[in-house]
Amino acid sequence: MDTTQTHPIEVSTRRGTWRRTDTIWMLGLYGTAIGAGVLFLPIQAGLGGMIPLIVMAIIAFPMTYYSHRGLTRFVLSGKNSGDDITEVVEEHFGSGMGKVITLLYFFAIYPILLTYSVAITNTVESFITHQMHMPAPPRALLALILIVGLMTIVRLGEQMIVKAMSLLVFPFVIALTLLALYLIPHWNLSALQTVSFSTPQAGGGLWKTLWLTIPVMVFSFNHSPIISSFSVAKRNEYGEQAEQKCSRILMFAHIMMVFTVMLFVFSCVFCLSPADLAQAKAQNITILSYLANHFHAPFIAWVAPFIAMIAISKSFLGHYLGAREGFNGVVNKMLHSRGKHIEHSKLNRLTALFMLLTTWLVATLNPNVLTIIETLGGPVIAMILFLMPMYAIAKVPAMRKYSGHISNAFVVLIGLIAISAISYSLFI
């Protein structure tokens, strides 16, 4: 009798332990989220002085954790363990809405992948020219080499993508932290003097600064493209305990994100004035580029490109998983409507070829419209990440158990603020 009673507890305890795969996914989540957007976050957040920074520090963790936990729970609510987000959407909302949201999901992530292909090419080209003082190879060749290198990791499979991202996290975190500490002697704390509710540098006052900072935060901490792959992998690994395990992994990943990013943001803002940050925004450059020019610091000039390259590479790989999932979903739904089917491995090869050719072409052409495309994807990301899971909690029976929490209202509020601020930025 004693054996029968203790056996389930032993199984539960064993399953509750932290595994190596949990660490790999935790770092993979961090790697997808913390990319190039972080390099612009200090500029927007610091324009209004200390109050926006304090508010951002307070809401960063709950905003990031509760929204991504909601999307994870949504994916896990599917009846089949292998269903990704596109299939769960169709299960809960019907075939027609499933096709619409799958298409929106793809077009929310794919333009960001194109942006990263351009960004990695520009960063390496600039590094070769300005730091190494060498002539850069033809742009088409350079772009092809870089993208083929990243796609080689992709071809090795999802687990290799996540492992590569988790490895890239370490040099990125170290470089970001060292840079934040390096800036401490340059702190002048002029931002502490800017605490009024009407700051000229903010371009309209404190509340407007806070409002427009929310979308930058959403983008800077966003790792929704990898959430579906993460949820499916953990459900296959942990079964019914997947939700608890996913929530725990997300919590540690977000603590790591918030600590490292906020340390970097505060250190950058403390060594510059709001007027300096306004100038950086007018020049449309990253905070690292502005710091290198502002302090005439060779150290930053050399470190900045490496931080940017690692950040962009991590985010490219993470966003590829989401873009591939979206593209596969669109193709599958088109074929199913015609009564046709394609093997998963063959579809993945077709997707890889499409991604390689289009990212290479866009990286070679280097169009300026990518920023607009990325901004247009912002409202869709906010809808899928913040609003869709909360709507499902209210309407889908499998999600009803998560209703009645104040965190749900908080997520909806942040989502609406993000969408309204992005819309304002587009049309004003």
Automatic annotation (TrEMBL):
It comes from the Bacteria. It is found in: Cell inner membrane. InterPro entries: Amino_acid_transport_2 (IPR018227), Hydroxy_aa_transpt (IPR004694). Keywords: Amino-acid transport, Cell inner membrane, Cell membrane, Membrane, Symport, Transmembrane, Transmembrane helix, Transport. One of its GO terms (molecular function) is amino acid transmembrane transporter activity. GO terms for cellular component: plasma membrane. It catalyses: L-serine(in) + H(+)(in) = L-serine(out) + H(+)(out). The chain crosses the membrane at residues 24-43, 49-66, 100-120, 140-157, 164-185, 205-228, 249-275, 295-317, 347-363, 369-394, 406-427. It is a multi-pass membrane protein. PANTHER family: SERINE TRANSPORTER, SERINE TRANSPORTER SDAC. This is HAAAP family serine/threonine permease. It comes from Izhakiella australiensis.
